Structure formats: structure tokens, C-alpha cells
Amino acid sequence: MEIKRELYLNQLISRKGNGFVKLLTHTFLRGTNLKNKVVILDEAQHIKNAGSKGAIAVRQLRARTRFALTGTPMENHPGELWSIFDYLMPGFLYRYETFRSEIERPITRDGDEQVTLRLRRMVAPFLLRRLKNEVLKDLPEKVEESRLSTLLS
Known about the structure:
It is a single chain. This protein has 153 residues and is mostly helical. The chain contains 7 helices and 2 strands. The protein has helices at 2-14, 26-29, 53-59, 78-88, 96-108, 113-123, 132-136, and strands spanning 35-41, 62-68. The protein has a two-stranded parallel ribbon. The chain is globular. The model has no long low-confidence stretch (mean pLDDT 79).
């Protein structure tokens, strides 16, 4: 498996030219050093833990422009927000130690409304979001289908 992975990555890296798109899973990202013009990270909630292998691998990607897409609410925890922003714009929300002491702890431990507002103002220009009731209008009707199958032993 590791040899196939390396061959695949070498093929990707050796391709040149405009318009080439590299689509990699989080698993394939680990241990790669691809250089890109644009990186779009789908399912960005997978890097909410800044110390995870996936988050570390994603932060090593080099790109002029970065996007993060997630269906997970950004309000879950300030530390998760920091991790995603550290991928998007390293340093924008400070080093984690500074962020934790000046923003995360006052919000989570003390419920500090002023600090919460400060964080919202900092990140608001970079968030495009739709509320659940807005998304529901765009979704097709739910279709459920039950199929029975025989299990063999």
C-alpha cells in the first residue's frame, strides 16, 4: 500500500501545467509536500484538533490561496476555530498559547461576552455561512428505500 501511495503521489507531483486539479483524501495528504496555487479543504472539521496528524499534514501544504469548507458550526469551540484558521491564515488568530490565554479561556471558562464579540469581529469577514433553515430550501425531498437481502454464512 505504501509503495502504491508513493507512486501515485509522484505522478501527481510530476504533472505540470495550468488547470490541473489534485484531489486528495486526508489520508493521502500525510507525508506529502505538494505546492499549489489554491487548496480547498473540504470537511475541514477533520482538522479541528490542531495536534492531529491530519491537521499537521494540511498545515504543511503550500498554497497562495486557501479555503476551508465545513458543515460543522463554527461556534462549537474556540480552539476548533483556531485550528481551522491556523490552516487558512497561519498566525491570524495568534499562536495557540496566546489565543488560548487571551480568547479561548475567557470565552469558555468565564463566558466573557466582550471577548466573544472580539473573536466574532475578527473572523466574520472570512466566513460565508448559511443557516439551516436557508439550506433546507435547497435540499430535495428525503427519499428512503428499504431493501432486504439474505446474509450468507
